[in-house]
C-alpha cells in the first residue's frame, strides 16, 4: 500500500510539472500580443501629440513695455492712469 501511495504522489508531481510547463509556454505569446496592442495606441497618441502646436508663453517683457507706454500722461489729468489700470484689470 505504501508503495502505491508513493507512486501516486510521484505521478501527481510529474503531471503538475507538465501542466505548469504547458501553461507557461501557452501564456507567454498571449501576453506579448497584449503588450504590443497596448503599445500601438500609445505610439499613435505620441505621434499625434507631436503634430499639435504647443502654447507659447506670453512674454513678460512685452507686457512691461506696454505698461510703461500707458503711464506716459500729462500732469493735468491725474485720473487717467487709474482708469486705464482699472480697464486692464477688468480685461
TrEMBL record:
InterPro entries: JHY (IPR027968). Residues 53-91 are annotated as: Disordered. One of its GO terms (biological process) is axoneme assembly. This is Uncharacterized protein.
Amino acid at each position: 500500500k505504501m508503495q502505491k501511495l508513493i507512486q501516486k504522489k510521484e505521478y501527481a508531481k510529474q503531471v503538475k510539472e507538465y501542466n505548469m510547463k504547458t501553461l507557461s509556454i501557452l501564456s507567454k505569446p498571449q501576453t506579448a500580443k497584449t503588450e504590443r496592442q497596448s503599445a500601438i495606441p500609445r505610439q499613435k497618441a505620441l505621434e499625434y501629440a507631436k503634430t499639435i502646436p504647443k502654447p507659447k508663453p506670453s512674454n513678460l517683457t512685452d507686457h512691461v513695455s506696454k505698461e510703461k507706454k500707458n503711464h506716459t500722461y500729462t500732469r493735468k489729468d491725474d485720473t487717467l492712469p487709474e482708469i486705464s489700470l482699472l480697464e486692464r484689470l477688468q480685461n
